[in-house]
Each structure stands twice: as structure tokens, then as C-alpha cells.
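Worked problem 6 (solution included).
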Amino acid sequence: MVKFKSLVCFIVVFFVFFSIFSVLSLNAQEPAAAKESSEVKISWEEFKKLLKMDTDEIKLSWDEFKKLLAQTGQDVKIEYNIENGMVVLTREQFKALLQKMKKPDVTPIVPPGDYLITKAEYNGVMAHNSTTFDVTFDIEIFKKERTNYPKIQLMPQSVALRDIKLDGASALVMVENGWYILTTDKIGQHKVTLSFSVQTELDKGPDVLNLTIPRTAITLFNIDIPVTDARVEIPESKYMSVTKRGIYSNVKAVLSTTSNISLKLHRTVMKEKKKVPAKIYTEAMNLLSVEDNALRVESNFKLNVLQNSISGVQLYVPSDYSVLYVRGEDYQEIRDWSTKEVENREVLSVPFGGEKEGSIVFTVVAEKILTGESNEIKFDGFQVVNSVRETGFLGIEKKSAAEAEIIENKDIDIVDIQELPMELVNMSTRPLILGLRYLRHPFSLTLKVTKHEELPMVNTVIDNASVVSVLLAEGKVVSRVIYTMRNTGKQFLELSLPEEAEIWSLYVDGKREIPSKNKDGEFMIPLVRSRVEGESIESFDVEVLYYHKNNSLPLVGSKKLLFPKADVVISKMLWSCYLPLEYHYLHFGGNVEKEDIATGIRPLLSGGRVFTYEKVRGYEQALENWEEAEQIEDEKIQKTQRMLKSNFRLSSANEQADIMNQVRQEIGFAENIKRERDRGVTDVALFKIEVPTSGKLYRFAKTVVEDEQLYLDFQYTRRWIYSLLKVLFFIIILIVIYRLRFRINAILIELRNWANSKKDFWMKAKTPEGIKVLSILGAFLFFFISKFLFVVFVLIFLFAWLKPELIKKETKPTTRKKRIPKRSKKASGE
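Solution. The predicted structure is:
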């Protein structure tokens, strides 16, 4: 086996040298100057390092290792080592990891069927005995496993098919179950065009056409009928318009989802149409928008034309209003509209491009400029000339800081916003503030518009600031800041850092950027605009890694750390400080909120939270089960979670998602430092900071930071000095006790005598009744001091109440016989 490995290594080295020799041989054909510049000299040791011939390890970042581990499942255990924040695997361990990887579970998406006809457009020309149609179908053929070609049902066999094409080419068609069936092996989006004829009886009427069709979501119908004196009816239509074109009536309709098209002609009514004028019934939806310097009006008219057709319509324009544009139902602008003065009133003429009847929809947009002379605006609405009846609704919206108030309404009623039609409500992108309704013309509405001063709005906010700072024993500080922010108009983020601070790397929305400085010495961070999705503004991250020098830490002293100050409001921040393990920290101050282990005298009495990068895997397991902490049975994971969690007195800093995100930033800090160091940063000469593998971690928080310099100060001492002080303190206590031993003894004697004098009290206290009274008093006292002792006294009370027989009852004191001293023999003889 050893010989085989040696042979493989020899072959690899041979081919490498052969490749280098070939390159050098090709370069030898160039001029002498080029030949000299192309020579490569490399030592054998450097060559081995280049090929990594003597290494049998694979190094992965923690994120790469975590992604591979996720493919193996939660129960698989892989042995690995941590070295400088990188996961180190032997080739055997890496092969074992690859063998245990599982194929990701992908749920296949099942299409609704073999195909789907999304749209159908029918264009026909009717003659006296037959009608010819050209039909276009938009078809989506889904990709799925099948044994036969899909069968697409198009038209019934009752029509006479003349031609059919698929994407402009001839298609395969057959007849099955009374329908023409298209079959193909293609998938995706396609267009099917076919021509056919169907029998019609124009002279018999009123049912002149009855056509069976496939059901489609969008169905458009267009037909030319050689009749101009009949009323057209299509029961399946939701919208229909009839336009006279010479000897033809052009009918356009939008149909609901249906499997049948019926066309009817009513001639008896149409024979009398030429004798009477058309009757126009009007329904109007008016949206009034109060802007900074104008009142904008958008009026949507729906005409119902009966008894005859019309080629256009005229409207009276409200006084002092200027018409901006007119558009049709298809939102296409009608360009040949015009206005003129008729009897001191402005009249708007809107042509329809031909004779129309039935339902006609169009929109007129106008505005009135506000002048500084008066803040009252009058609106009496657009009025359709010769309309039999006109009703309508008004909705008022605000698009500025101006306030609108109704001061006069004549022949128009104020209604609740909920009573307005949805058609009018949907015309506005803002909530309507007022609603009105009128039943006839004329009417009059007067608004009072009060302008208010507009205040500048906050267009940039930092939702969350996550900062991790590492303090080294030599006084150097490395910090990584991640701002999660939203921005709609700010170009730069001004960042104030400590003096002589250097930015090592900067990422804005995942892209590397270059900072700059202004004349005040503040760093200018270029920003991007947030993407707007509907009514929500998406956030992005700004990541800054900076470094600054400071004095080294002495044996005993105090230190002050500054939080990076931004010119944008910060909703909430979390600051993790990674302090040297060689020191003991006595007290934390500053204007930031401390977690429980950093408040009061707790730092003095406890050792703090020890965070080590050698236990990254355990920290990751704790994060994966963070939300199910109560259901975890592994005591090791529970212990790690208790160590990583923070408790703040303010509830805003206790959100689990924020704490989890902060822990992830703490875990990934060392890896990010190494990433930037390996990648290299321009204009940074000394970038060889090694993050310590362990230290003491404290967290601090703040809610709503606005133009405030946050700072943290703390007192510290070397651990051996702290241990020495504890020993000295213990010795001093012993010396004091020794020097005061006689006085302490006298105090103890007095206490014993006092207790002996209160024998009756102690005897009563031993009884069940006495225990009940004392436990109630103790529970009342410790309710405000210690919940644990309060529960203890409550349990004692319940025990004395439920089991009094187990408590020793009071017994009478036994009388001792008086001891008579023995008399001496001499005394007895006397």
C-alpha cells in the first residue's frame, strides 16, 4: 500500500514538472528579454506547500460545515476539531460526512391537469346563412409524466372546421366524443388558431347564433352583423358595446366563464329607434383629491344608452376647472376631445369613434388651482347634456397636509364612507375622509381647505443595531457593527467612531463599499434605497468592521468603551463586549442598560459568563433548540442555553429573536475577522489581530437611541490580585473575630440568658398554633423580599394546619430533686 501511494505521488510530481517544462519551452521561443522575465524558480519545500502534498486535512468555515451537517440529519455525530475558528476534518472524517449526507426532500408540484386554456378570442363575420369565425386560444401545456400525448378539447363537431395551426404551423387534430381534439408532444405556452363556419339564420331571429365553446377564464367576443336596425343581446356578456360601421353593427363583448354563446337580435324595437332620440341614463363616480395647490377631480361616467345609438356625448364643465385628459374604458386616452363656450358655460365634447349603444364608460380628469386669496373651493360637478337621469357619488381624499372641511352642501347629502360603492373606493390609493351622494343636477358643494405646515419626516431608521466588541489585553478594540435599517432618501450614514479608528471592511446590502470622511472627521457610509413591496419597505444590512488602539490594561484600573454614534434614530440596540479572561470585573457603569449578571455588585461576587470558541458546536446546538428549551431533555444543552441567555429589566431587550440573532453574531465574530484578514483590505497595514479563543462576555442594551453618545465604563483588576484580596479579607475577618472574642462571648451569653428568660414564649411557639402565627408573619414579611422564603413559610403553615399531630405538643416541665450535699463525718458526729 505504501509503495502504491509513493507511485501515485511520483506520477503527480512528474506531470507537474512536465507541465512546467512545457510552458518554459514555449516561452523559450520568445526574444531573450522575454525569456529572462519568464523564468520561474521555486524551492522544493515551497513546491510541496503549493501542492499540499504533506497535508491530510480539510478546513471548512463554520457556515460551510453547518450546511453539510444539515444534509445528514440531527442524529448523526461527526467528529471534528476547531482550529482558529475553522472546522478541521481529516480526509476519512470528510468522506464519512459525505457518505451520511441525505438527498434533500423535494415535494413535487402537481399541475392542475394536462393543459389549461387561459384565454380565448372569437372574431366573426355574420352573413345571412352562416358565420365565419377566426379563434385564438392561449394554451399552457404542463410538463408531467404521461404515456400518451395530451388531448386538448377545442370546438364541437357541429362546426365546420377549415384550418387549425399550433404556433403558426400545421397541427394534429382528430375527432373524439363529438369534439375536435388537438394533440401534440410540446409543453409550455402556445397559441392555437383555427377557422370554422357555423350555420346561422339571420332572417328568422331573435336567436340567430348559439355556439358551444370550451370554458375559459378570459373570453373576448367580437362579431360584425349585417344589420343596423336591431338591438343586440348576449346574455353571457358582462360588458358589451355596439358600433355602427356602414351596413354592419360591430359588437364587442367580454363574457363571463361560460360554455355557450347566445346572440339575439330584436328587430321590433329597433324599427322605432329612428323615430325617437336616444335616452341616456348616467351614473357618475367622482373622486376629489385635495393636493398642495390644487383640487384634482377624477370623474368616471357609466352611460346606459337606450332606444338609439350615439356617436359622442357633451358635458357641462364646472366653473374655473381645467380639463386635463379623457380616457376610455380600456384606459386608452381619447385624444380628439374638445371644449367650447356655450351660453357662458364651458362644454366638453367627447367622441366615441362611431355609433354606440348600451353601456358606455369613460373618465374625465380635471383640476382647479388654489389661489392664496381664498381657501374656499366650489364644485358643482360634471353634467351630461340631455341625460334623462344622472345620479352619482363623491369621495374626498387628502394627498397633502391641507385639511378639507365641508362648509356648504346643497342638494347633495353626506353619507358614511361604508355606503360608498367599492368602485369609487378602489379609485383612491388612500383612505377616503368624506363621502357624498346626489340624485340629480344641479347640486353644489363648497369645501374649506386649510393649509398646514409640513414637518420633515424621518425617511431613514435603524430598526436594530447589533454590535460585538472584543477588548484585548494590550488595549486594542475590534468591533463589528450590523445595522438593520430602512432608507427611502438618505445618501450617506454619518458614523462617529473613536479617535484614530480604522474601518477594515464595509458591506451595504451584501455588497462591499468604500467609506469616506467629511470635514468633521465622521465616516460617510454610502447607502442604498430600500425596496418597496406594496405598502411595506424592506430593510437591508450595513456591516462595519473597525479597529482602534488604546492604552494597555494595567493591573488595576477603569476603562471606557464608546458605542458607534450614528446620525439616524436607532430603535433598539444590543452590544456584546468580549473582555479578557485574565481580569476580574468589579462594576459596570455608563448610560446603557446592563443585563442581570452585570448589574450592581454581581460582577464583583461572580465570575461572569465565560465564552469560548472551542465550544462553538455546543452553542449552535443550543441555538437550534432555542424556542423549545422547555422540551429539551439534554441537560448539557439546557445548561448552555441558560449560560447564553440574557435577562434585561426592560422588556424590549428580552425578545427571543433579538437574543438569538445576537448570539449568532457573537459566534460568527471570529470567523468574520478571519474572512476579512484572509481576503485583504487596502490601506490597512497592520491586520493581524488574533481573536482570543475565550473570554468573559457581557451584554448591554438600549431602546430608542437618538443623537446620544452611548458609552460603557467598568472597573477591573487582575484575577490574581482579586484572589489575593479575597484571602486578605478573610484573614482580616479572622483577626477581628479573634480580637473581639471576649466581647462576642459576652454577647452570646446575654443572648442565651435572654432566650432562657423567654421560656414561655418558646414553649408556645413550638405548638401548632404558634407555628401558624409565626409562619403567617414570616410569609407576610418575605413576600416583599424573597419569593422562595415566602413559599417556604406558606408550606410550613399548611403543614401545621393539616398535620398538627406530628408537631411535638407542649409538655410540663419535670421538677428536679434538690441535690443535698453530703455531710462530713465530723459534722455528723457533732
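Discussion: The two ends are 119 Å apart (CA to CA).
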